[in-house]
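Supplementary notes for students who missed Thursday's class. We covered one full example, reproduced here. Read the sequence, then the structure, then the short commentary at the end.
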Amino acid sequence: MFEPAPAKVNLCLHVLGRRGDGYHLLDSLAVFGPAQDVLRLEGPGALSLRLEGKFAPGLITESDNLVLRAAHALAGAAGMAAPKGGLVLEKNLPVASGIGGGSADAAAALRLLNRAWGLEFPPERLRAIALPLGADIPVCVESRPARMGGVGEVMMAAPALPPVALLLVNPGEALATPAVFRARQGGFSGPAPLPPAWADATAMAANLARCGNDLQAAAISLCPAIATVLAAIGAQPGCLLARMSGSGATCFGLFATTAEAEAAASAMPANWWSHAGPLYEPPA
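Structure (token representation):
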């Protein structure tokens, strides 16, 4: 049994304010794909996790991986004292890169084990189990486009999306989200002016260009390579919008077609991680 864990991409991210506990209030349009980690279930033994894939070394030193935390949280909700399952995480997404890899992996664990253990918990219950583990995990449970509010845990309907493709590019530098928020300067933004729908990719990009990522300038101050990546993406034929995702350092380019996005990916430097394709389509 296996479960995809698609990247979460913030097409825009506005910081609206700050709560008394220090957490920031956000407004963001999140979509998923085109790259993904993959979680597999192999063997009936005691609950365990093995890491493989290009970016596995970035997680090996973690003593409390989100995948296992999610698995134990699901087992606790189900009243399972000794959960079973040998999990294998194929880590294809860069670590600490602004595309929600850890959150997507945890959500994949909830979906996979919910199925494997025959629990049949509905998505709303999985989201409730996920929330204490991290505010980004609930939106990853269904991996569908959503408008995120609060500290990231509030989900609202996204605008209806036209066919589009994404290019994801990371310069190979990890960024810690708390550090980016600390480096952020200036005041707060209003909500993103998003319509109910876009007629096509060009209209979508034009509207998103009037929005922004309020963490981008702070991230560039910590990782100047982000500016180089954005310039490289924006210079590619067919690129309608180039922007950083989340707290960085991964950036995206928005294209009307998959062929244009893939051609742009082939033009990126070999020492950068890049991936292109259409948005992720979750199973019906």
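Commentary. The mean pLDDT is 96. Strands lie at 2-18, 24-41, 48-52, 86-90, 146-149, 154-157, 165-170, 241-244, 251-255, 273-278. If anything here is unclear, bring it to office hours.
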